[in-house]
Amino acid sequence: MEEIDLEQQEPLPVDRDGKKFRPGADRPDGDREVGCCEKFQESVSRWMLPEDARSKYLERANCCPPPIFIILISIAELSVFVYYAVWKPQKQWVTLDEGIWNSPLTYQPDKRQEAWRFISYMFVHAGVEHIVGNLLMQLLLGIPLELVHKGFEVGMVYMAGVLAGSLCSSIFDPHSALVGASGGVYALIGGYFMNAVVNFREMIPLLGVFRILAIVILVGTDFGFAFYRRFAAEESGLKVSFVAHFGGILAGMSIGYVFFSAYNQKLLKDPRFWLCIVAYVIFVLFAVLFNIFLSPAL
């Protein structure tokens, strides 16, 4: 009889205790069914990372913990909107109302000495279409970004965009108020856009074209609403600046790009990181001095 080589036989569907494997569980890695979370993480990696970084991400990808920063900031913004739109007797559902104008959170040029307003304006929105647009964009883009990158990195980019937005508005549109989280949202968009452009070939070219077109259409539409809010409100005297969009997207295309393109790398050893940080600090210092000594809104 022909001898049987046991090492060449298929392994029996039992574990060390002699029990049969359960369907879909306790199987070798090659036979294990892919779960919903893993499928989602694989899709996220295709949209957010170049090909050479996907395997490293998928090795340690996990849906827990969830993207805490972007979820918490969205809940906070929605809560403030509900407070002014429902609990306060204001007609704020469609357009900016006097209650929002007088809010201690809104950035106003004549109250620049209240420094928290350069950040807190992101919690106040000018109406339903304003907050819905911002929440949709930051959740659709922020959640995948925070799954791939750390919440700290996404939070730093978001807040850098918020601050850059208000400072740019105070310099280039010094007589206008400012509300909304567009600075932070555009920082995420700017960082992702640069990553998609620079890693175009590695991030599936066909999807890359779709990504870039989708960003251009989204940004163009939102800029249209921002221009409308800025110039249509002149008759009522409540001018809401749109310059924060430019400040946010510039922050994203610099700081955001460095954070989002350097996956699994030490940023402290990356000269691009220090170049962007130094440039951002210089801009902030210049904007602060401008607001103290040179602003026409003095």
Automatic annotation (TrEMBL):
EC primary class: hydrolase
Region listing for Disordered, in residue ranges: 1-32
Biological processes annotated in GO: proteolysis
Family the entry assigns: Belongs to the peptidase S54 family.
Pfam families in the cross-refs: Rhomboid
GO cellular component: membrane
Listed EC numbers: 3.4.21.105
Gene Ontology MF term list: serine-type endopeptidase activity
Native source organism of the sequence: Takifugu flavidus (sansaifugu)
Chain intervals with Basic and acidic residues compositional bias: 13-32
Residues annotated as the enzyme's active site: 182, 245
Keyword Hydrolase: yes
Bilayer-crossing regions: 68-87, 118-143, 178-197, 209-228, 240-260, 272-294
Keywords of this entry: Hydrolase, Membrane, Protease, Serine protease, Transmembrane, Transmembrane helix
Record's function text: Involved in regulated intramembrane proteolysis and the subsequent release of functional polypeptides from their membrane anchors. Known substrate: EFNB3.
Primary location group: membrane
Catalytic activity as recorded in UniProt: Cleaves type-1 transmembrane domains using a catalytic dyad composed of serine and histidine that are contributed by different transmembrane domains
Name of the protein in its database record: Rhomboid-related protein 2
Membrane topology type: Multi-pass membrane protein
Cell compartments where the protein resides: Membrane
